[in-house]
Every structure is written in structure tokens, then in C-alpha cells.
Amino acid sequence: MENKEIVQLLSETADLMEVAGEDSFRIRSYRNAASIIASHPERICDIVFNPQRKVSDIPGIGKGLSFVLTELCQRGSFERRDQMLAKYPASALELLKIQGLGPKSIALLYEHYGVKTVDDLERICREHKLRELPRMGAKLEEKVLRGIETYRKSAGRFLLNFACRMADELIAEMSALPGVDEVKAAGSLRRGRETIGDVDLLATGSGAAEVLNHLVHHSKTQEVLGQGPNKASVLFGLERLQVDVRALPPENFGAAMQYFTGSKEHNVVLRTDAIRKGFSLNEYGLFTLEGNERVAGESEREIYERLGYEWIPPELRENSGELEAAQNGTLPNLIRREDLRGDLHMHTIASDGKATLREMAEAAAVLGYEYIAITDHSKALAMANGLNEERVVAFAQQVRELNRDGLPLRVFSGLECDILRDGSMDIAEDALAELDLVIGSVHSYFSLETSEMTDRLLRALESPSLKILGHGTGRILLQREGYTYDFERIAARTAERGVAFEINASPERLDLSGPLVRVAKRKGCCFTISTDAHLPKHLQNIRFGVIMARRGWLEASDVLNTKPLPAFEAAIRSR
Ligand code: DGT
Ligand code: CA
Ligand code: CA
Ligand code: ZN
User: Fold this and answer.
1) Which residue has a Cα nearest atom 5 of ligand 1?
2) Average of per-residue pLDDT values in the chain
3) Domain carrying residue 220
4) Are residues 145 and 166 in the same domain?
């Protein structure tokens, strides 16, 4: 059993214990153990089965848990988990994923109505039976129904960063096989969608068929869904991510890349236009309708050009104006990762980050940046040890000194200041004025009515210190929808106030989707792209922010942190 599986079984058991209303101390001990094991470098089972070693030697793992872990490694489950599964069905775990329902409500629904599955739950809500239970009401019914909708939409999808990691790993292995010239990702992964249904890989070269065997016999392959001469499809990794791989001759490779990159909507329009122009376009190439003569297929570019289009970057292929722009020669010159010269949103151990200012600065310098801003939380986030006024002022002073004493790059003093329920800033303006850069973020009262949330943000935009509107929607991908407000109105006001809109690159969030970025750009907004890193390695997530910016049609000039240091500094001073 791998550590990942152990972590999953421990967390699930803790979840079920919560449903059962058990002692919170025991529940926490399972959760703690899960998080320790998640970052433990060695396999727990190797330690358990080694007579010279003891799992209880791992810091944080006590006697009790070492028995649990031993039992888990020996038989794949443990007593507590068996007890919980005898009491509640495993499907109760799915119910926990629905926004709006806590463990207590799930227990109540199970006892009163025997609700075991998401379908049961939906029926109870539709029949208005949920509101009859203590402390539940019509409003919760609506909320749960919306939660079910979100849950269904996200079922079977994966975060972009996870799918990228799996794809990058496979592409590296496959590219090294003899006779394989090229392996590339197509599909939603190549278009950079925030979530991915399955990974589509294409390979070419004389030995390309070998990639199919590689995938089918891979140690991480859990199940083979199908294998033919040119295509294999498997469920990969413990998460059972579907990976499709196709082997193609070089003369088809461009056509197949174009076809399998999609989107479907983009392809439908392109294909229809091809027919109008006397061609048929499919995954094998571009052919004349008359005579069926191949005129393109080796590269995407020749296909687009033959049909009268500029080559279209995959992030734009959503049939939302890119085909028209490619015909008129008005495609944007999209921003690239190398255009960014700094990262403007990150945390340190001063609040809930896990590294020091210096460690973050060093990691950022390695990425080639010229500057960063450190933006820890403000005091409203007490759980995150947010800064109060006194600490804010001291921090600004400390950063001035550190810059004088020498840091690997320029550090700006910043703050991710909470926007309170009424739209006021969590920190007094005179303290904020000491800082170089203030981000304002909503971290509470996510479910205000649309108009109330709009007013809240309008008020926040009045703050003279505010430079960046952080997060933008507060969504957590596959889990929680963002808060709602009059986006166009806020975007317009943000532009008027000279405040930048943040494109948050954290892969669980990616708050601003491509379409929202485009709306904000049309309203005249400028942007920042930042990672919200809590660890040095999170700084690398910047690539996902760049993808969102590209999906929002942004050019380097739309993004503040592409400016060289002197121009950037001037921009944040004057605003
Ligand atoms: P996903 O996997 O749900 O995140 O989204 P995609 O876009 O990767 O969709 P997928 O994997 O079903 O197919 C990959 C691409 O292949 C898709 O974007 C367009 C193309 N494609 C696949 N099947 C069809 C089809 O039946 N008709 C058309 N027009 N295109 C297809
Ligand atoms: Ca796909
Ligand atoms: Ca697919
Ligand atoms: Zn943050």
C-alpha cells in the first residue's frame, strides 16, 4: 500500500467519524497522521515491514496510530474504519463533498430519511423534506441543490496541475523510447482548461506504436480500457485519471493535433468553413473535396494557413472570436511566462506560509524574477495569524532594511488585506500607507446577495491604498463556486480607480477564468498574475496563471508585473 492510499483511508475514516459525531480529539489525530504521512519521504509500509524500524519513530505518530498503520499495511483496512463503514455507507463520503452540507446534517439525513447517496439527497430536497429537519430550511434546500449541481459538474474531472504533472511525466518517458520523434498533449490540457476530463496524448515516429505498450504496461496503470493498433486508453494512477494515447504517422501529426486539441466547438466551425472553401478537414489531413487530394496535414500551421487563418494558439480555441480574429490578422500577441518579472502575492511564516521571507526571495530569484511582493494576511484571518496594524508597520520597516542590507532581488512590502463584510479594509489606512503594495481580498461572507457583494467591493475600491483586487471570485475548483457580484460594474470601477485585477495562479483556485479576464480587459482593467504561494515551490505555479491570462486574450502590456523594476515601481507609486 502506497502512502497516498493510507492518507486517503485515514482521512475518509476521520470524515465518517465526524458524521458519527465522535470525539474531535480522535478525529484530529487521524487527520494529523494523514498530513504527516502525506509529506513523509519514505513508504510507510516499508517501515512497518522492516523489523529494525518502528513507525512510532516518525515525529507526530504515536503508539495508537502505529497500530493503525501496521494493520493498514497488513490487511488494507483497520478496525475503526470497518466500524465506521458498518455504520455508514461509503457513499456518505460523497455527500461530504457537497457544498452546504456538514457532517452533522449528513448524519441527520441518514437517520431520518435513510439518505445514502447524492440521488437520495436530491430527491429529499426536491420533495421539500430537508426543510422539515431541525435547523434546516428552504434556503438550505436551494443551496444543497446548487451544491449537487456543482458536484455533478466536477465529478470525474481533475485539476489542470495534476493532469499536467501526469502528462509531463508520461511525455518525458515516452519521448525517450527508441523511434519516437515527438509526443505531445492535445485536448483540454493543451487548451489550458482549469479542469481536465481526460488526457489526450499524440505520438509520432517510426517506433510510435511502442508508446501504447509503454502506457498499457506502466506500473501506474490501474486498468486498461482499450488497446488497438494505434490507440490505447487506460486509467492512470491511484486517482484513475483517464489517459488516451494515439500513434500517428508524421504526415498526419499536425492534422491530428488540430483535431484532438479541439475544442469541439472550434473544430465544428473550422470544418464547416473548410467545406465552404472546397476542402474536407479531419484528423488525417486537409483534402480537396474534388479529387480527394491531400493539401496539408503535417503541421497545424499549414492547415490553418491553407484555409485563410493565422495559426491559433490552443488557449484561444473555444470558438469565442478567435477564428474571426485569425482571418482578420487581429489575434492578440499573447503574454508568455518569460514576460513576467515578478510575483506579487505570496505568504511567509509571518502568517500562514511555510517559509521565511528570505527563502521565498531566494526561490523567486532562481526563477529569474527581478522583484516580488510579500503579502501576508491581515488580522481578520486570526486562524492564519494575520498581521495587525502594529505588525504591518513593523514589517514595512523591516523590508526597507532588508532591501538595504542585500536580498537576492527587490522585495516590496505588501499585505493581503481582508475586505470586511461591509467593504471596509481590515487594516487602518495610515498603516496601509506604509506598505508598497496592498492586495484586497474577500475571505469571508462568501454567500452575500449579489447586490450586497457588489456594494462591498465598490466600497473596498474606495480605499486609497488598494492596488490589487485579489482572488476575484473565491472559487475552489471542483469544490466551491465563487461569490457573485456585478462583475462588469466592478471591473469598470477597478479600471477607473487604477486598481489591478489579480489573476490568481493557484491551481486549486484560478479565480479569474479566461472569459472573466476578457470582460475585465474590455472594461479597461489592467492585471497582475501571481501565485499566492505558501511555499517556495508554489512559485512555479505561475505557469497556470499565465495560461488563464492567455485564455483571457491578454498581452504582456496588460499585465503590471511584466514591467521592468523601475517602471513597475513608478507604476505602483503613482497609480
Ligand atoms: P475534456 O477531456 O473533457 O477535458 O475535454 P477535451 O476537449 O479534451 O475533450 P475530449 O477528450 O473528449 O476530446 C479531445 C478533443 O478531440 C476535443 O476537444 C475535440 C476532439 N473530438 C473528440 N471527439 C470528437 C467528436 O466526436 N467530434 C468532434 N468534432 N471532435 C471530437
Ligand atoms: Ca481530453
Ligand atoms: Ca479523450
Ligand atoms: Zn493569499
Assistant:
1) 188
2) 95
3) 158-248
4) no
